[in-house]
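Render SCP domain-containing protein in 3D.
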Amino acid sequence: MGAGFAPPAKNMYKLTWDCALEATAQKWADTCLWKHSDRSVRNGSGENLFMQGGGRPTNSDLLKSAASGWWGELTKFGIPTNDVTLTSALFQSGVGHFTQMAWATTKSIGCGVSKCKGGQTAHVVCHYGPSGNWINQPIYEIGSSCKKNSDCMGDSSACSVDEGLCIWK
């Protein structure tokens, strides 16, 4: 694994906010349980968890810390330079949160934040739809960022050339 590195993605979707995913994430965050929810609780969506103790950070700061930590797994562990298949070994290397964020077919996200134990800890839960992180499946297609609509997946997506990301129509 090359720490800090991931090959470029050809077919990465720009995530959009989903209020239904936000609602399921907030409901789970409010339980203050430090474990993944059952897939049925989140309607089959993917899930990332983050917990922080101490201080009184704002919800915005907590969300930023969670996203930075999850994406930061790439910096720590990297992923292979020529194969972005999510193997068991790659997942166990510590990039599971990153790969859920970068999963090519994931189109939407919703997050919830809850202060737990009288404010001593904060839980951040994000739900992703559709779910990713399927073992032995590609995280995304390696290649230059999209330049035209046909670089994206299917007739229901278009390329935002300026962003180099696919947009779900």
